[in-house]
Every structure is written in structure tokens, then in C-alpha cells.
Design brief:
With 319 residues, the chain is of the alpha+beta class. It has helices at residues 2-11, 62-65, 79-94, 102-105, 114-119, 122-131, 137-144, 153-165, 235-242, 262-272; strands spanning 33-39, 49-55, 172-181, 190-191, 199-208, 214-219, 252-255, 275-278, 302-307, 310-315. It has 10 helices and 10 strands. β4 (190-191) and β5 (199-208) form a beta hairpin. α1 (2-11) crosses α3. The N and C termini lie far apart (61 Å).
Length: 319
């Protein structure tokens, strides 16, 4: 098992170990496992860290203990196991298996990937998923007073930072929202009936159109409490925050009519050297009046208007 864990850790070799997984005894978590960051005392680069794996408290919480009779299943976890857990989760997404039942990934009928059974048992995988936490429960309430995303703020911001640093997007990008399916307890869970999952966490993202690489993103949590994390949730403000990795690069951004507007496109061109292509809502006052007269237009007809620095296109689709 240790050799297999090391193989998965190799896939994550470029990922620094500067995340923290803490235990919790509240209603949302029931683990005593944690990974705590300890700065390296060596003469190497100051941003290098080592993970000191330990038990946060001397005994496991009663909730987990009651479900396991074999105490061997409740041994302390290790850094290699946590890296393997993250690697398997990443691999499940890469293989498009993230929507399968967990048992199907460990079945022995020949259809499941062998990686999962080779790395760890299904029981250990389930236990780690249940136990892993990304913040310190002792300070969570204090941080929640100013940030609704406090339980995952550190690891989420670090993930986004690495997305920006590890890849340079090309000339065509897209800004849109996605709904990650989630039906658990969450104050900012969204219900969007026209999405496949309907219930979930809404994420706004800047994505490279060719490779679908996510360069920047932010979780929509509604109105934040007063403090450093409170921000404007208007479409134009969201766009201006998301385009930070590509500002002044001359890229083109495609977005739908919820984000797009003439003043925003003008500002992105003048201040950020970015062009925009997207749809507009009919109630935008900057739209030329001739575009609003659509009743008498022929089906599949197209009208173009060039008004520096914008090009307007009206396509009359079949009703």
C-alpha cells in the first residue's frame, strides 16, 4: 500500500504541502485527523513546507468511534494517505467518474479503474473523506463572523493562486457561472432549476476556451458580513475581479448577457486592453434603436452595425 501511495504522491509532486486539515467536534464535522503546516528549518527556500501529521486530540470523536468496531481502522493518518486521497479525487474527475457511486469505483467486476483498489481500501477512502477538514475549528466561529467561506477559505484561495501561477491562458477566454452539485447544509447553496444539478454551490470562473483550464474563480456566497471579504456582487464587478490574470494581455473574453454590457466592454478595452464578445439584454439603453424593431424582420436575417469601437450584430432566429 505504501508504494502505491507514493505513486499517487508523485502525481502531486508539484503541489506544495501548505494546506491545513483540522479536526472538528461540531455538527458539521466529526474527525480528529489533521495536517498541520510546519515551516522548514533548513536553508532551503522559505516557501518550502513540510507536513507534520498528528492526532489533534487524544481520542477519536464518539461519532466515528461508534461506527467502527475494529480499532485498526481508526489509526492515525499520514501525509502520504492525504496526498493519495487528493490524488484519487483528482483522478476520479479526470476519468469523469466523479458522479459514480463510490462503491462502483472499488468493485471487482472488471469495469472499475484499478487505481482505486491499488491505492487504498474503500473503507479507508470513505473514512478520510468523512474526517478531512480544511480549517481550525477552534477559530472557525471568529472567522465566520467576517467570512461565510471561512471553512475552506485558505485551501480555496491557495488553489486559485496556483491556477493563476501554473498556466498562462491563450487569446480566447470565457467568463461564466457553474453550479457544483451539493445538497448539504450551506447558507449560500443555490437553486437554479435550469442546471443539471439544480442545487449546489455557484462558482464564477474565467476559463481558457481551448483547453477549458480554469484560470481564476470565486465562490458566490451572497452578501458577506462587513469586513475584508465583503465585495460588490454586481456583474461588472465580478468580471473585473476575474480578469486579473489576463489584464493588459490583449485577450478576448466571451460572456453571456448577465455579465456583458456596453460600459463594461468599453472599460475593459480602455483600462485592461481586453476585447469582449457576447450577447446583450434588450433593456440595455446603449443598443441601437434599429435593433429593437424585430417583429418585421425576416427569419434568419442578419443586421450589422459598426459604431466605433463596437460591432453590433442582430440575428433574427426562427420563432
Amino acid at each position: 500500500m505504501d508504494k502505491n501511495c507514493e505513486k499517487v504522491c508523485a502525481w502531486l509532486s508539484e503541489v506544495e504541502d501548505d494546506y491545513a486539515l483540522f479536526d472538528s467536534d461540531d455538527t458539521d464535522a466529526d474527525s480528529d485527523f489533521c495536517i498541520e503546516n510546519v515551516e522548514s528549518d533548513s536553508d532551503e527556500s522559505t516557501d518550502q513546507t513540510t507536513s507534520n501529521v498528528r492526532r489533534r486530540s487524544p481520542s477519536l470523536s464518539a461519532k466515528i468511534r461508534a461506527n467502527y468496531q475494529n480499532k485498526k481502522d481508526l489509526r492515525d493518518t499520514t501525509k502520504a494517505e492525504i496526498d493519495a486521497l487528493l490524488g484519487l479525487l483528482y483522478l476520479a474527475g479526470y476519468l469523469r467518474s466523479n458522479h459514480l457511486n463510490l462503491h462502483n469505483l472499488w468493485c471487482t467486476d472488471g469495469f472499475a479503474p484499478e487505481y482505486f483498489r491499488a491505492i487504498m481500501s474503500e473503507k479507508l477512502f470513505s473514512l478520510l473523506l468523512r474526517a478531512v477538514r480544511f480549517d481550525d475549528i477552534e477559530t472557525r466561529n471568529v472567522r465566520r463572523a467576517i467570512d461565510k467561506l471561512a471553512p475552506i477559505r485558505t485551501v480555496f484561495d491557495d488553489f486559485v493562486r496556483r491556477c493563476k501561477a501554473n498556466y498562462t491562458v491563450g487569446e480566447n477566454c470565457t467568463i461564466d457561472e457553474m453550479l457544483e452539485g451539493f445538497r448539504g447544509r450551506c447558507s449560500f447553496r443555490q437553486y437554479i432549476p435550469n442546471k443539471p444539478n439544480k442545487y449546489g454551490i455557484k462558482i464564477q470562473a474565467l476559463v481558457y476556451s481551448r483547453t477549458f483550464y480554469t484560470s481564476n474563480m470565486e465562490v458566490y456566497v451572497g452578501t458577506q458580513p462587513d469586513g475584508p471579504f465583503k465585495c460588490d456582487n454586481s456583474p461588472s464587478s465580478i468580471v473585473k475581479r476575474l480578469i486579473s490574470p489576463i489584464s493588459k494581455t490583449g485577450c478576448n473574453i466571451t460572456m453571456d448577457n448577465w455579465y456583458n454590457s456596453i460600459p463594461l466592454a468599453n472599460e475593459l478595452l480602455k483600462n485592461h486592453n481586453l476585447t469582449v464578445m457576447g450577447t446583450l439584454r434588450k433593456n440595455k439603453r446603449e443598443i441601437p434603436p434599429v435593433f429593437l424593431e424585430t417583429k418585421k424582420r425576416e427569419v434568419n436575417s442578419t443586421v450589422w452595425i459598426w459604431k466605433r469601437p463596437f460591432t453590433y450584430n442582430l440575428y433574427s432566429k426562427q420563432k
